[in-house]
């Protein structure tokens, strides 16, 4: 009887000895992730105009920024000033572009619309609030003076940057 | 607390087109080559439409700084994470302010108005 009790005790000791606390740790670091939500499409509402506005038959490119902590990054979005692919053009193209907030995950991000800085064709916004924000870019290109674009495919590139500050 | 959990879930969740470059604030250390310092960066490609990223180093005024790396144009597959070593001469190290990666789009794969993503880390 005593032998059985001793054996059972000896077998049970390692079970107690092996039960330890398993810590779970997580580190939240500042990071910025850029998501390309929607690629844009130029609409051609008139012969000499290409535009991404929905009212012109286009699709606005949308980019999403995620930041885990606020105040560490700024978003910088540059709208195009040239075509990356197009047929040969013999006249000037006048470019206009703008960037605005499309959606936010936190209502306080609405300040991004008023706090943006615009210079040239670049818009900068300090990402001061953690969460996700979607920016939509608008781009239009007018060809010459009352001229029609030659037939072909036209593409341009929007650059979305996330720069540590 | 919920906000952080939501964000972490979102960052690692199943989204299709993302570009990530870490750490935010890299620090340089001595390399195995005398007079050369290096820092290790990590690039994550979650953009299905992108296979190449260009690595670049700039000073505070966005002038390019001479650097070396295994590849300046990095080939990285979808959902792949790659460690990238950036080597800079010790005498140039004080100039280094930004280390950036920018997505490069193949000409033949451009169909719409595409978005090029660029992320810059800052050396403090």
What does this structure look like?
The complex is a heterodimer of chains A (165) and B (124). Chain A is built from 2 helices and 10 strands, in the order αββββββαββββ. Chain A has 165 residues and is mostly beta strands. In chain A, strand 7 and strand 8 form a beta hairpin. Chain A is elongated. Chain B is mainly beta and 124 residues long. Chain B is built from 1 helix and 8 strands, in the order αββββββββ. In chain B, the strands form 2 sheets. In chain B, strands 1, 2, 3 and 6 form a 4-stranded antiparallel sheet that branches. In chain B, strands 5-4-7-8 form a 4-stranded antiparallel sheet, with no helix packed on it. Chain B has one domain: Immunoglobulins (Immunoglobulin-like), CATH 2.60.40.10. Chain B starts with a helix and ends with a strand. Helix content of chain B is 9%, strand content 44%. Strand 1 of chain A pairs antiparallel with strand 1 of chain B.
Give a nutshell description of this structure.
The complex is a heterodimer of chains A (165) and B (124). Chain A has 165 residues and is mainly beta.
What labels would you give this structure?
heterodimer, A: 165 residues, mainly beta, Immunoglobulin-like, 6-stranded antiparallel beta sheet, 4-stranded antiparallel beta sheet, 2 helices, elongated, B: 124 residues, 1 helix, 9% helix, 44% strand, disordered N terminus
């Amino acid at each position: 009887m005593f032998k059985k009790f001793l054996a059972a005790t000896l077998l049970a000791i390692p079970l107690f000895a092996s039960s330890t606390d398993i810590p779970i740790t997580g580190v939240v670091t500042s990071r910025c992730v850029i998501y390309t939500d929607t690629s844009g499409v130029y609409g051609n509402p008139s012969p000499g105009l290409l535009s991404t506005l929905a009212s012109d038959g286009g699709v606005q490119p949308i980019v999403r920024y995620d930041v885990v902590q606020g105040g560490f990054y700024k978003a910088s979005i540059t709208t195009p000033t040239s075509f990356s692919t197009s047929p040969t053009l013999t006249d000037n193209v006048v470019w206009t572009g703008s960037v605005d907030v499309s959606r936010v995950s936190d209502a306080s991000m609405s300040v991004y619309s008023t706090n943006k800085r615009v210079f040239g064709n670049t818009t900068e916004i300090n990402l001061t609030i953690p969460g996700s924000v979607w920016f939509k870019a608008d781009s239009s290109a007018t060809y010459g003076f009352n001229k029609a674009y030659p037939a072909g495919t036209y593409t341009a590139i929007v650059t979305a940057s996330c720069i540590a500050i | 607390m919920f906000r952080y959990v939501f964000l972490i879930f979102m960052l690692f969740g199943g989204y299709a087109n993302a570009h990530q470059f870490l750490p935010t604030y890299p620090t340089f250390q001595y390399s195995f080559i005398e007079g050369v310092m290096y820092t290790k960066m990590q690039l994550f490609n979650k953009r299905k439409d992108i296979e190449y990223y260009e690595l670049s180093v700039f000073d505070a005024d966005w002038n390019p700084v001479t650097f070396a790396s295994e590849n300046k144009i990095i080939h990285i597959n979808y959902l792949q994470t790659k460690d990238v070593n950036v080597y800079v001469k010790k005498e140039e190290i004080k100039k280094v302010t930004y280390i950036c990666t920018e997505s490069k789009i193949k000409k033949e794969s451009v169909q719409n108005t595409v978005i090029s993503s660029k992320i810059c880390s800052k050396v403090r």
